[in-house]
Amino acid sequence: MKVGILGAGSWAIALSVLLHNRNHKISMWEFNKNDADMLRSNREHPVKLPGIKIPEDIFITNDIETVAKCSEYIICAVPSQTMRSTMKLLVKSVGENDLQKIMGWVMVAKGIEIESLCLMTDVLLEEIPGLDTDKIVALSGPSHAEEVSREIPSTIVAASDNHDLAVKIQEEFSTESFRIYTSSDMRGVELAGSIKNVIAVAAGICDGLGFGDNTKGALLTRGIAEMMRLGRKMGAQEATFSGLAGIGDLITTCISKHSRNRQMGELIASGLTLEQALEKMTMVAEGVQTTKSAYLLSEKLGIEMPITREVYKTLFQGKNAKIATRDLMVRELKPEWW
User: Fold this and answer.
1) What are 77-122's pLDDT values in tens digits?
2) What DSSP state is assigned to residue 154?
3) Candidates 48, 135, 196, 292; catalytic one
4) Which of 191, 271, 309, 328 lies at 20 to 30 Å from 100 by C-alpha?
């Protein structure tokens, strides 16, 4: 299988190593020319994934056309808020005939575009001429790059409207340490992978404020409830949010030392402004921008998402985190499921 990876961050590098071990032919595109040159020379990213060597026969370039033209499958691994501009660059650089030859698009970015409130696969459908959902797979679940790249057992889900394509990705990407299940609920898998990052920011705030296990357990449970409410409104399957892309990824992101979103929450709880916290981050915390888009989406659809709302106010309106917590606790009393 010839696989092109758009993006060269930690997850892209981890996937390149994993797929190389399956004897697939891998090419990787990095937007920043200096970073592409550094990766080609050092075969390692000292900040994003230190200690993981990129095999010499993985082709790394700053030329997106070259990657697209030599690939049968494309993995989309750029940050969610740059997905549309990347697709526009791809279409501009590569002829429509070459794009139609691509057999499958694998979405691994997690987020909701702020301007349009689109999920990432919707961005693909809008930007790639002639593309339909039969050629798209959303790949998501509890899968920190730091662990996948070191062959620590991990399990995720491949979701697609096209069962045969989901099975193809399952079979070609799975290894002894990386197990993939299939799903038909692409929308649910994408929503879960996006909103869990918002809850992870809240988890970091809890940790930063010194709250305990009771708080974290409640946060994860009520976070899943918010994800389910939004998912129901958008046509997703509720069971998806109890699976790997939902509760599995949520637990991992809310407790892990590798979680950039949880780290962001801790920085905010320490009293830093959003701008100050972002300056301390060396990699993108997708939950920050997804908090804004998820909040706007919940307002647009009339879905009550109180955790998301308070994280939004804390990040973007400067609300004190302790006051946000209090406001969550003293809301109108309700049954657990509503």
Assistant:
1) 999 999 999 999 999 999 888 999 999 999 999 999 999 999 999 9
2) E
3) 196
4) 191
d(CA 52, CA 43): 8
Nearest CA among 20, 314, 61 for reference residue 149: 20
Predicted pLDDT of residue 337: 83
Radius of gyration of the chain, Cα coordinates, nearest whole angstrom:
19
User: Residue 166 is inside which H or E element, if any?
Assistant: helix 163-173
Distance set, CA 280 to CA 48, 144, 261 (Å): 14, 20, 13
Query: CA separation (Å) from 316 to 167, 234, 271, 308, 309?
Result: 41, 25, 14, 12, 10
Report CA 55 to chain centroid distance, whole Å: 25
Once rounded to an integer, what is the mean pLDDT over residues 157-174? 98
Residue 246 has what DSSP assignment? I
DSSP string, 180-216: EEEES-HHHHHHHHHHHHHHHHHHHHHHHTT--HHHH
Report residue 265 as tokens.
């929450």
Q: How far is CA 194 from CA 26, 45, 270, in A?
A: 27, 25, 25
**pTM confidence score:** 0.95
Say what angle helices 213-233 and 306-316 make with each other, to 10 degrees.
110
SS3 category, 175: coil
Residue 246 pLDDT: 98
- Specify whether the CB–CB gap between 145 and 10 falls below 8 A: yes
Spatial contact of 216 and 270, defined as CB atoms under 8 Å apart: no
DSSP state of 169: H
| Coil, helix or strand at residue 105 | strand
Q: Give the model's pLDDT for residue 84.
A: 98
Please name each of the domains of the chain with its CATH number: 2-184 (3.40.50.720), 191-329 (1.10.1040.10)
**Using CA of residue 96, residue 98, residue 103, residue 107, what is the dihedral sign?**
negative
